[in-house]
């Protein structure tokens, strides 16, 4: 929807009755103003054109980015508020972060214009750009989750769909005759898993393995908790 802009540029046609730019810059009136008894019309038109053109450009900017009508009603406070709103929206649009991309945020409350990735349903009519990223109108629930790169036929993580959830992997604990020292090495390298001195022989397995009759130790990398949020508009 095109918003109304009351501020129009004056005398902007190709054959407008205005003094040339050179003549305007050389005119004594440019520095001293018009004398009270001798106002040249084409010079006055030039003044009006310059001031009205830049005014119209600014007003169009306000109407476009504030999504409000810009009216010539003398309400300076309202116009100032509309200008601030337009600037905030423009600065927000300059951001290279597209709508819908998860971003780690250090506080519990997202900034204005952002929503927490908590699996909630959102209004697609209110957030149409967000709906382009999530057509079902529901955000992914990233609370307590890690993000993994999509395999896309590479063969590292077969069968995955975008935004699909996956259970964690684990180490299968075997007391059999495997080479010793695997768990000790992991523990001593970065302290990410529990080491039982009585059981130091391990074999890598996935959680969906069955019939092994062994226990599993779940691995977790060192991490810092952030609040995943998405830009909503």
From TrEMBL:
InterPro entries: Phage_tail_collar_dom, Phage_tail_collar_dom_sf, Phage_Tail_Fiber_Structural. Pfam families: Collar (PF07484). Residues 100-147 form the Phage tail collar domain. This is Tail collar domain. It comes from Photorhabdus asymbiotica.
């Amino acid at each position: 929807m095109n918003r109304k802009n009351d501020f129009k540029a004056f005398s902007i046609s190709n054959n407008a009755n205005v003094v040339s730019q050179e003549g305007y810059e050389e005119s004594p009136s440019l520095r001293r103003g018009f004398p009270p008894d001798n106002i040249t019309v084409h010079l006055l038109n030039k003044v009006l054109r310059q001031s009205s053109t830049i005014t119209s450009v600014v007003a169009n900017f306000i109407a476009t980015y504030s999504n409000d009508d810009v009216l010539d009603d003398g309400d300076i406070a309202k116009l100032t508020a509309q200008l601030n709103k337009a600037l905030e929206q423009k600065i927000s649009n300059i951001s290279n972060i597209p709508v819908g991309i998860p971003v780690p945020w250090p506080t519990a409350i997202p900034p204005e214009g952002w929503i927490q990735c908590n699996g909630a349903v959102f209004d697609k009519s209110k957030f149409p750009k967000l709906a382009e990223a999530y057509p079902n109108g529901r955000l992914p629930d990233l609370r307590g989750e890690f993000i993994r790169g999509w395999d896309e036929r590479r063969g590292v993580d077969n069968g995955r769909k975008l935004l699909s959830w996956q259970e964690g992997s684990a180490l299968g604990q075997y007391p059999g005759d495997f080479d010793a020292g695997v768990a000790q090495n992991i523990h001593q390298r970065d302290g990410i898993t529990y080491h039982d001195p009585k059981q130091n022989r391990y074999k890598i397995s996935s959680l969906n393995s069955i019939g092994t009759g062994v226990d599993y130790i779940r691995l977790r990398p060192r991490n810092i908790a952030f609040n995943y949020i998405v830009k909503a508009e």
